[in-house]
Each structure stands twice: as structure tokens, then as C-alpha cells.
Design brief:
Number of strands: 4
Distance between the termini: 11 Å
Helix content: 40-55%
Largest sheet: 4 strands, parallel
Shape: globular
Bound molecules: 4-nitrophenyl phosphate
């Protein structure tokens, strides 16, 4: 099977998308799927290029056993649409920016990350976003981490189900 390539996107690439990157990467590894799923993250903005994730994001993730220290911020670019199968936005503003950038022939999944969430406590009638925690307190980072864990569990299940369906049809 060809590897599935996942890109998480937020605004600055220092809070939400690196958290998703680290959490999802860790879950993929724990499931023994690292050879089948590759992970990256990027921001729609360019203010933090080359920086490590926000210290609050690093510490919050670390308390639950996820490492983000190896990550560095970069900006999403047009080539990403040729490189990734899943491009997953943290909020609707990120999604709208990505939709504006997407080539017409992009055939992968471009949607909100939490569309995949497995947690009913986060599901509502409308589309669900991971809120920007940058200007708030540490509790916002903790809430974001919980949402990202639920999204990551759901995304792994979805990718596994697809792989099984693909195997059965080939
Ligand atoms: P992120 O959070 O999009 O989750 O990385 C932000 C980080 C930085 C800024 C905004 C949001 N900023 O305006 O610098």
C-alpha cells in the first residue's frame, strides 16, 4: 500500500497544528503504522517560520507524553497539494485559505480536522473547529489537546477503515 500523507494546518504553526502533528505521529507509532502514514504540519501565516512550537503547547503535550520539540514552523505552499493526501485545517478560516490555494485537480481530502473526531462530547450540529489558544491561558491549550487527541483517534480509525476497504476491493 502507498503511504498515506497527512498535513495539519493552522494559522501560526506553533500551537494547534504542531500539537496535532506530535499527537497523531505518536499514535501512529504506537499502532505500528509509521511505515504507512507520514505526518507534517504547516501554518497559513508566515510570522513564526523556523520557530519551535509555543512553550505552552510543548509543556501541555509533554504532560501527556507527547514530544513537540523536534518540530519547526513552516508555511503551507502550493506544492503541499501535490505531496499530501489529507490536508486538515484546524478552523474554518484556515480551511477557506487552503481552499483558495488548492489546485483544481487536487483529489485528496481537504477538510476540518475535527470532522474525524471520535468524541461525541465535542460534536455539535455545525462544523467543529479547534479554537486558537494563542492569546488565552493554559486551560485553552489543555482543551485544544483533548480535542486533538479525539480527532487523531478518529483519523487513525478512518485511515485504517479505508485501507481495509481498499485491500478487499483489490
Ligand atoms: P496557531 O496559533 O495557529 O494554533 O499556531 C497562533 C499562533 C500565532 C499567532 C496566531 C495563532 N500569531 O498571530 O502570531
Amino acid at each position: 500500500m502507498k503511504p498515506v500523507k497527512v498535513l495539519f494546518v493552522c494559522l501560526g504553526n506553533i500551537c494547534r497544528s504542531p500539537t496535532a502533528h506530535g499527537v497523531f505521529e505518536s499514535m501512529v507509532k504506537a499502532e505500528g503504522l509509521s511505515h504507512l502514514i507520514t505526518v507534517d504540519s504547516a501554518g497559513t501565516g508566515d510570522w513564526h517560520l523556523g520557530e519551535e512550537p509555543d512553550q505552552r503547547a510543548i509543556r501541555t503535550a509533554q504532560r501527556r507524553g507527547y514530544s513537540l520539540r523536534h518540530l519547526r514552523a513552516r508555511q503551507v505552499c502550493t506544492e503541499d497539494f501535490a505531496r499530501f493526501n489529507y490536508i486538515l485545517a484546524m478552523d474554518l478560516a484556515n480551511l477557506a485559505n487552503l481552499q483558495d490555494m488548492a489546485p483544481v485537480d487536487f483529489s485528496g481530502e481537504l477538510r476540518l480536522f475535527l470532522d474525524y473526531s471520535d468524541s461525541p462530547s465535542f460534536s455539535k450540529a455545525g462544523p467543529e473547529e479547534v479554537p486558537d489558544p494563542y492569546s488565552g491561558g493554559i486551560d485553552g491549550f489543555e482543551r485544544v489537546l483533548g480535542m486533538i487527541e479525539a480527532g487523531s483517534r478518529g483519523l487513525i480509525s478512518a485511515i485504517k477503515s479505508r485501507a481495509i476497504a481498499h485491500k478487499q476491493s483489490s
